Amino acid sequence: MCKKLLQIAAGLGLCLYSVLMQAAEINFQNILQQERAWAGLQTKTVKAGDVEWIYSEGGNASKPTVLLIHGLSGTRDNWNRVARYLTPSYHVIIPDLPAHGETKTAAEFDLSIPNLAEKLRRFTDAAKFDPNLHIAGHSMGGAIAMLYSAQYPLEVKSLLLVDAAGVYKTANTAYLKDPQQLRQIVVEKSGDFDKLITIAMQSPPFIPQELKAAQEKLMVSQSKNTHKMVNALIEMSKLYTPESFGLLARTIDAPALIVWGKQDKVVNVEAAAELKGLLKNSEQPLILEGIGHMPILEAEQLVAYPYLNFLKKVK
Hints:
alpha/beta, Rossmann fold, 8 strands, Alpha/beta hydrolase, hydrolase, AB_hydrolase_1, monoacylglycerol lipase activity
């Protein structure tokens, strides 16, 4: 009898846990929706070739268009806090990159950086956005933004690079010296999300436990694709040397603003000066004291206000 009661209690416990997790996921999605609305964004969909893109859009479509690109294992929602300051004056577009967030792809989809840049161009065309874009990229999104700018120079009015990935001579972190180390920050089991936050942020914001669990579960479900993206970044480090990456960067004519967290543990801050030396038309890098690899989440105002000032100066 006691054994039976214990089995029933265990069953009820699992059922209750399942209900609580489902509620946390629903709450997590509701919070994201509220944050998008707070930032003046709406969720939209467009099909471009073999990709059905999910993206956020906000602001007046008659205003200059700003395209924001997230980083490895990120989503469009990484930019919400910055986008809030942009939507009153600009037309803001933030896609979930293929195999990230809600933009789904086939298992054999090519997740290389060059292909993502090309698919992003097809996305802007399919959605009929103004092709004269201000492009901003964070981390891996910065590498995509640079390649996009090099390939379509007449369609890029300006460039914002936030802790941008690349193949740098100043490789002072484990992740730059050996990109294979990126595999260690893939969220694929319980507890990995906390480890990632510790690496990515110097001063992480408070995240309620139930929301953290929902975010971790989402990232675990996408871990196979994240590993594919890590492989793509490793291949980029083989495809480009610091010299050939420098040649690519030197072809970019667009005015550029570089922002970096001084305590970045993923792409060290010395890379900001190196990148400025490569770009033809870059302002002095903005180095944020006490900030890690995620300024767009750690210190959104310190990114948004200088970016708005920069955009006003771009002709």
